[in-house]
């Protein structure tokens, strides 16, 4: 995705979050490229405004003809009304489609850019925000922006309509036009202030919607724990507090919106009263025709609706700007893991992996690893063990560059990972994590994600090697069975074996296993371990495990504590050292016993 235009646009604006800067950027990056749609909207809008402006002229002519007892009123005026009405209906239909089409394609582009950025972003960015809050950017914010854009585009039509009606009013009576025009600009100041308050409230409301969605997701996902630990009352109270905050946010926005129409109502009534008073004075002195006065009042009344819409537009636009600001905030975030412009493809090799004095610190300053060094030779298995929080999974995540090292370097077949193209690096890696979530597609589709284009027989062979073929064949539709969101239609052990089949199908240079067999029963684990033994031949395997029985056969065991390697050697050698690793083995043996 090309981010240069957006970054450049941001630099050109002194205050990227100001209303003008956000609107200019939205126009520059997302709207102006849709020229055909813009042209359609503009042409149909002008046509609508022209037809609206014709109504008062028809009324003026009809009343003057009626007063003069002109017989042509019987066929001219009805024909004109029918023609104008039919034409306006057709133009309105086309304008609605054109406006909606333009707005929806712009929203689609924003959603696509934001999703692409988040998918390309490093894991730290994704993990910083709850999934429900991220989802709200694509739903709540997008809806708010869509409504604001529709209002804004329609406001163009309202503006042109008002201009057309003003031209009609001036044509019919320029003196009355001056009287009416004097009062409406007074409304600009209070409406602008209301709009600013609505924008602040809208930003808080959108944040609160994300937090409420996060709370609901947590409560439903932990439904069993909530009931077992009798947390129903606590969860209800927590949810009600969140609902109250959301209610108050929405109430603030409602109050802001509600303040616009009364201001316009008072000013509109004052304008009509002034026109009637001035027209009455002139009628008493014989200075106006009945048709001219009636047409003018009709134009003034017709202008009240678009003027009211323009008055409430500012509040709607401010709400949309709050959503745009949040979306642009995501798009503009610099990626923590970047690919160098001169990044190279992966050179030939067998997967020799070297950690050289690697250190890693999380964004909040917590140390994840300190001065970690080891060499994983091709065809050998390196096991990382240690207590929870020792840095095992962190070390594993640095290999596919889910994070980047803070200092030191990691080499793959003699090349620093940061000098490689990301796609080339990750194509050489298969990763099976301890928290296996599948995609809501078929079993075969989930396995085939390991290697696109794999044949059905290759998919079945990978499943067989992962001890998954048996239970898959027993599913209602076999390999075509959909697994449900997150694989929820399968057990934890079944999901783990499908994920392992995906890794087997990839035939990687590096195999990363993060508690990959933790959800398997003893019999299935033995079968999978046998398959993994064959798979490890000729490639590097890095294993992270708390269950130490799975790493006894590792060629090299590295015991970590607080991000540092405190022991290194074979299983037998570390048992003889009687250090951290031996204590972990004894603790697990006691726990099993």
The average pLDDT is: 77
Measured by DSSP, the beta-strand proportion falls in 5-15%
Domain unit count: 2
Identify the CATH class of the largest domain: Mainly Alpha
What does this structure look like?
This protein is of the alpha/beta class and 593 residues long. The protein has 2 domains: 7-208 and 253-331, ABC transporter type 1, transmembrane domain (ABC transporter transmembrane region fold, Up-down Bundle); 353-592, P-loop containing nucleotide triphosphate hydrolases (Rossmann fold). 63% of the residues lie in helices and 10% in strands. It contains 22 helices and 10 strands. The strands form 2 sheets. Strands 6-7-8-3-9-10 form a 6-stranded mixed β-sheet, with helices on both faces. Strands 2-1-4-5 form a 4-stranded antiparallel β-sheet, with helices on one face. Helix 2 (19-31) packs across helix 13 (290-331), helix 8 packs antiparallel against helix 12 and helix 12 runs antiparallel to helix 13. The longest helix has 45 residues, at 76-120. It is elongated, with a radius of gyration of 34 Å. Mean pLDDT is 77; it is low at 1-14.
Give descriptors for this structure.
six-stranded mixed sheet; 10 strands; ABC transporter transmembrane region fold; alpha/beta; 593 residues; 10% strand; 22 helices; Rossmann fold; disordered N terminus
């Amino acid at each position: 995705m090309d981010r240069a235009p957006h970054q450049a646009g941001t630099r050109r604006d002194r205050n990227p979050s100001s209303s003008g800067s956000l609107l200019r950027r939205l126009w520059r990056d997302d709207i102006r490229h849709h020229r055909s749609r813009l042209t359609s909207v503009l042409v149909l809008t002008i046509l609508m405004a022209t037809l609206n402006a014709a109504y008062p002229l028809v009324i003026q002519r009809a009343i003057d003809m009626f007063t003069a007892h002109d017989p042509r009123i019987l066929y001219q005026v009805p024909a004109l009304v029918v023609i104008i009405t039919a034409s306006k209906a057709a133009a309105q239909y086309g304008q609605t489609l054109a406006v909606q089409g333009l707005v929806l394609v712009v929203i689609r582009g924003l959603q696509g850019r934001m999703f692409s950025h988040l998918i390309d972003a490093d894991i730290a960015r994704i993990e910083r925000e709850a999934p429900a809050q991220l989802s709200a950017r694509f739903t709540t914010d997008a809806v708010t922006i869509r409504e604001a854009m529709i209002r804004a585009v329609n406001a163009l039509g309202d503006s042109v309509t008002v201009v057309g009606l003003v031209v009609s009013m001036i044509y019919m009576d320029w003196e009355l036009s001056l009287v009416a025009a004097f009062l409406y600009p007074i409304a600009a100041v209070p409406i602008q202030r209301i709009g600013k308050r609505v924008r602040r409230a809208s930003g808080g409301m959108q944040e609160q919607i994300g937090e409420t969605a996060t709370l609901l997701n947590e409560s439903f996902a932990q439904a069993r724990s909530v009931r077992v630990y009798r947390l129903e009352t606590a969860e209800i109270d927590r949810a009600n507090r969140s609902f109250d905050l959301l209610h108050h946010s929405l109430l603030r926005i409602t109050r802001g919106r509600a303040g616009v129409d009364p201001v316009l109502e008072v000013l509109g009534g004052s304008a009509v009263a002034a026109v009637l008073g001035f027209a009455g004075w002139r009628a008493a002195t014989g200075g106006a025709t009945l048709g001219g006065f009636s047409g003018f009042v009709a134009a003034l009344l017709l202008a009240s609706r678009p003027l009211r819409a323009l008055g409430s537009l500012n509040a709607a636009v401010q709400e949309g700007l709050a959503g745009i600001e949040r979306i642009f905030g995501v798009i503009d975030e610099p990626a923590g893991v970047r690919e160098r412009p001169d990044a190279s493809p992966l050179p030939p090799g067998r997967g020799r992996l070297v950690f050289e004095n690697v250190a890693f610190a999380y964004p909040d300053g917590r140390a994840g690893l300190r001065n970690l060094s080891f060499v994983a030779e091709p065809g050998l298995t390196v096991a990382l063990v240690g207590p929870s929080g020792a840095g095992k999974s962190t070390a594993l995540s640095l290999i596919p560059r889910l994070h980047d090292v803070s200092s030191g370097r990691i080499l793959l077949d003699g090349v620093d990972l940061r000098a490689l193209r990301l796609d080339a690096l990750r194509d050489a890696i298969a990763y099976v994590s301890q928290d296996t979530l599948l995609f809501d597609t078929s079993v075969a589709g989930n396995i085939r994600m390991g290697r696109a284009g794999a044949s059905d027989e290759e998919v079945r062979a990978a499943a067989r090697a992962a001890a998954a073929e048996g239970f898959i064949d027993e599913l209602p539709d076999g390999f075509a069975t959909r697994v449900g969101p997150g694989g929820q239609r399968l057990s934890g052990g079944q999901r783990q074996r499908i994920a392992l089949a995906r890794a087997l199908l990839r035939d990687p240079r590096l195999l990363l296993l993060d508690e990959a067999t933790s959800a398997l029963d003893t019999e299935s684990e033995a079968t999978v371990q046998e398959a993994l033994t064959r798979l490890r031949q000729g490639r590097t395997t890095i294993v992270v495990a708390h269950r130490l029985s799975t790493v006894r056969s590792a060629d090299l065991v590295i015991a970590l504590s607080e991000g540092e390697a405190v022991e290194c050697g074979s299983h037998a050698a570390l048992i003889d050292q009687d250090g951290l690793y031996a204590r972990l083995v004894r603790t697990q043996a006691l726990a099993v016993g």
